[in-house]
Amino acid sequence: VTLKLIEFLSNKSCLICCQCMKRFPGCFWIIVRIMIMAFFGCLSVGLALFSYIFLYWLLIPALHYERPIYFDYTESVPQSILHIDQEHEWYLLSLPFESAKQYQSSLKPNEIYDISINLHIPEKQSMHDIGNVMLKLSLYSCPVNEDDEGTVNDDTDNKKGKNITRRYSNTDQLSQEYGWKLLRKSSRPILLKYESSLIRTIKKIVCIIPYCLGLWNEDKYLSIPIISGFHEKFDHPTCIANIQLSSDKFNVYDASIYFDIQLQGIKYLLYHWW
User: Fold this and answer.
1) Cα separation of 159 and 156, whole Å?
2) What b/e readout covers 248-269, taking b as 16+ CB neighbours within 10 angstroms?
3) Per-residue 3-state assignment (H helix, E strand, C coil) for 47-75
4) Computed from CA positions of residues 70, 75, 81, 82, in that sequence, does the dihedral angle turn out positive or negative?
């Protein structure tokens, strides 16, 4: 029955087409032109879509890169020395210098990054009593030549917008000890928003049910932009990050460092406008 129905419909459509061609001789060529235009239109859209996907895959790098931070509180100054590359997962100075050599970075060369540090901290009175705490970040490369020297971009001392040129042996202890090349360092203050004990007590009484049920926790998340416009260089890739806190009384549940890329030029247009 199905075959007969298909045969009947095909014969009927052919009959209608023949009748239309007899009545309207130019109808056939109009249909041919429409089909050709539709074919080339679909081909153009397909090529444009393929070109966009290929250029996006080729030009747009990973927009975000994250690494966990583990502070060592056995030191007088809590610090975390971590490897940027995920393949080298060590966080403290327990390995020899040969283990810290790296010729490529997980960050894309010739790209500009905004670097921020996220902290997950407990919300308690002793944290407010500490006052200002300095968060410091130093970025290093691991050159083949241990005697390599260069300039240091210090955001702390760069108050007038001038780059300060120094020898690494005069500025950084890790550069002397391990031969790492200091690329950039910066520091930012951390001061928790003041809240009196009376206000804090009233808030806890009002919200006691969510706290008791475990829906809310007495913690706080801080996102601290620490470096803006960091240029990742091809000849000196970033491999080491040293993060320090100025006070061992500043408690941290967990922390992470974020590298957010700044898209420019055609990369910006590809990502934001299409």
Assistant:
1) 7
2) eebbbeebebbbebebeeebee
3) HHHHHHHHHHHHHCCCCEEEEEECCECCC
4) negative
Dihedrals phi, psi of 77, to nearest 5 degrees: -115, 115
Distances from the Cα of 226 to the Cα of 66, 132, 245, 249, angstroms? 14, 16, 13, 21
- Which pLDDT value is given to residue 24? 64
* Phi, psi (rounded to 5 degrees) for 39: -60, -50
Which residue in the block uniquely carries the two structure tokens 């416009």? 229
The Cα 269–Cα 212 span in angstroms is: 49
DSSP 163: P
CA 62 – CA 108 distance, rounded (Å): 8
- pLDDT tens-place string over residues 82-116: 888 765 554 444 444 444 555 556 788 888 899 99
Q: Give the residue from 191, 251, 197 showing the smallest Cα distance to 224.
A: 191
pLDDT tens digit sequence for 16-58: 777 766 666 666 667 778 888 989 999 999 998 888 888 888 8
The 3-state DSSP class for residue 6 equals helix
Residues 6+ apart with CB under 8 A from 73: 248
Contact between 163 and 271 (Cβ < 8 Å): no
Spatial distance between the Cα atoms of 186 and 154, rounded to a whole number of angstroms: 6
Reference 184, options 213, 155, 226, 210; nearest CA is 155
- What is the bridge-based pairing of β-strands 238-245 and 133-141? antiparallel
Whole-prediction pTM: 0.67
Q: Using CA atoms, how far apart are residues 97 and 14, in angstroms rounded to an integer?
A: 82
DSSP, collapsed to helix, strand or coil, labels residue 229 as: strand
